[in-house]
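During the no-cost extension, the postdoctoral fellow (Dr. R.K.) reprocessed legacy sequence entries with the updated structure-token encoder. One reprocessed record is reproduced below for audit purposes.
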Amino acid sequence: MKIILDCFGGDNCPNSAIDGALLALEENKDVSLTLCGDETVIEKHLADKTYDKSRLNILNASDVITNDDVPTLAVRRKKQSSMMVGLQTLSDGEYDAFVSSGNTGALLVGATVFVKLIDGVQRAALSPLLPTVIDGKATILVDGGANVDCKASMLKEFAVMGSAFMSSMGIESPKVALLNNGTEEGKGNSLTKEAFGLLKSADINFVGNIEAREMFLGAVDVLVADGFDGNMSMKAAEGMGNSIFFMLKKYITEGGIRAKLGYLLLKPSLKKLKGLLSSDAVGGGVFLGVKKVVVKAHGASNATAFKNAIIRAEEMAKADVCGRIRVALADKKDASEVK
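Re-encoded structure tokens follow.
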């Protein structure tokens, strides 16, 4: 798999991006990487590193899109940025995937403009994989923040794309649920009520509504939401997790010798739990709906997070996620026309 990595735009770029790329090359021998950005800066950082030079290239880009840039303006005015040069190169056909920790809005617009949407897709959806209480099982959230205002028909597309994605990951007949404020069919606002009817009649394994408190239980494989509710739920869960670890540390510190001894016994388990919930382990979310794999890594990604985002992009490209979504949407369209 040939993957392009945007080395600029994120909080810890370019050093963490480059170091993450080297970790990915070491871990996965099937990956070939092209680092996109200021070649002088990249070459300087690589000067004292040891790596397989036959699997690492540099694509020069003279500009950078920052988080302060307006996405639509950045796409038009910063065509020589590492993000836009990378996306344009991806669209030319030689590469399989693109990874960036830069401006989310610009990445969404750029992927739509340069890489293009799969036929039948109204909007691409940012879709992170959420950890669950079941070891080795993840739930994909579609949408996690790209589209804050959605139509019911878009939520139906999100469900079909998410189901196709999880099928490509080896899950047979993925369970699809709609994020709502109650599990009963009549619950929700006008959007979720209309979407429920569309999902119920769609050719997917729709199991009904699910509440935000059940997001991480592993009961479903695909969680469908508009970008506003999806993003709010994710950030609330992230904040709660951080708060729990903060309070735990505080109470251990205040609890005296018994609490500290207990912590020492629990430390390996707590460390494992923290690693599971960390965004570093997740790597990033994929933009479902574009013609090639585009992965958005967390803006504050460290080297480990970049490595995992690259590995995830390789897995998605290898599984032909985009091709499976294209077929799934075409099948649903044909079935609708027959009806």
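The mean pLDDT is 91. The first helix runs from residue 15 to 27. The remaining legacy entries will be reprocessed before the final report is submitted.
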